[in-house]
Design brief:
CATH topology: Rossmann fold
Shape: globular
CATH class: Alpha Beta
Radius of gyration: 19 Å
Largest sheet: 7 strands, parallel
Order of helices and strands: HEEHEEHEHEHEHEEHEHEHH
Keywords: Oxidoreductase
Distance between the termini: 47 Å
Structural class: alpha/beta
Helix content: 40-55%
Strand order of the largest sheet: 5-4-2-6-7-8-11
Protein name: NAD(P)-binding protein
GO molecular function: oxidoreductase activity
Number of domains: 1
Number of helices: 10
Number of strands: 11
Length: about 325
């Protein structure tokens, strides 16, 4: 366990070193853990460029003003796109790729527990699966040429690393058997295997891929609630579960400030060699569990990547 006092001291020391000219991309940083991490990084860097992807610039205007107060030496550019859409991710990436010569930090934290059930985008992907996995990996893939030009590039996906489990192997996209738990399990394992694949093909041998679980964090955000379209008994069961989850977060969850500090620490830390890493909520590197080892040894990293590319193609052809 890396103690919170150690994290705070390390981040403060990093800030004092006056790092200049970094380029950062944040997706999912309009609220919650992502925003907390963004604020910490904004304080720790100087004269750096921040791209913040989100749905509404007007709704983020107060936070943009707050970031400028935290550190006016940086430039903060809001990129208004719907990140659940692959076409929108491509548009956002095109804007960044034509404006920058490198990317140092990519932080992704979009998504949450989909209590409301499956919702499909106009590209045909289930929205929560798209936000948690497909759009994040699309961002990495699109921005990889600029990440490879950084001296110490870090890619951070705040999701559920270290919690990988076996998946429904005959229904990777959950088209026949969508559920809250399967969606979480699939997006978790697919992220770890996709990061393994990207690390393997990284000719630059520079990129650090970090798949992190934040644990329970008291974000104070209003949670999604289940709807009644699947029946009242299911709605009542999910509503009770969502209230129990909210109570446990308030009772035992990590503070938002600490979570932001910890994710800022791993995003900027020089302790990681290039490659794919899984970290727990206290920033410890956890050895790959049986599920990851089994799937990797069976060649599933390549299989998952091929599946991901097919789904991207299908989504983009729907527009």
């Amino acid at each position: 366990m890396v103690t919170y006092s150690t994290i705070v001291a390390s981040n403060a020391h990093f800030a004092e070193q006056h790092h200049l000219g970094r380029v950062c991309v944040f997706a999912g940083a309009t609220a919650g853990i992502g925003l907390a991490t963004l604020k910490k990084i904004a304080f720790m860097l100087h004269e750096s460029m921040f791209y913040i992807l989100g749905r509404s610039r007007s709704r983020f205007s107060d936070q943009l003003a707050g970031l400028t107060k935290i550190n006016p030496s940086n430039v903060y550019q809001f990129v208004e796109e719907e990140v659940s859409l692959m076409s929108a991710v491509d548009a956002a990436c095109h804007s960044i790729l034509t404006s920058e010569t490198k990317i140092d930090y990519l932080c992704m934290s979009s998504g949450g527990i989909p209590w409301q059930g499956p919702v499909y985008t106009k590209e045909g992907l289930e929205a929560n699966f798209a936000i948690s996995y497909f759009s994040r990996i699309r961002l990495v893939s699109n921005l990889l040429p600029l990440l490879q030009k950084s001296e110490q590039p870090h890619v951070l996906s705040i999701l559920n690393g270290t919690k990988e489990k076996r998946i429904k192997e005959d229904d990777i996209g959950l088209e026949k058997s969508w559920g809250i738990v399967p969606m979480i399990d699939h997006s978790t394992l697919l992220t770890s295997l996709a990061f393994d694949y990207l690390a393997t093909i990284d000719h630059s041998k520079r990129v650090v891929y970090l798949h992190v679980t934040p644990g329970l964090v008291n974000t104070g955000s209003r949670k999604q609630r289940p709807d009644t379209s699947k029946g009242w008994f299911r709605w009542l069961g999910l509503l009770i579960l969502s209230h129990i989850a909210d109570f446990m977060v308030r009772l035992t969850g990590m503070s938002l400030d600490e979570s932001g500090e910890r994710h800022a620490y791993v995003l900027t830390s020089g302790q990681f060699e290039p490659g794919s890493w899984r970290l727990d909520k206290l920033n410890d590197v956890i050895p790959d569990n049986d599920a990851v080892v089994s799937y990797r040894n069976a060649g599933w990293a390549d299989k998952i990547w091929n599946f991901t590319e097919r789904e991207w193609t299908r989504a983009l052809s729907a527009m």
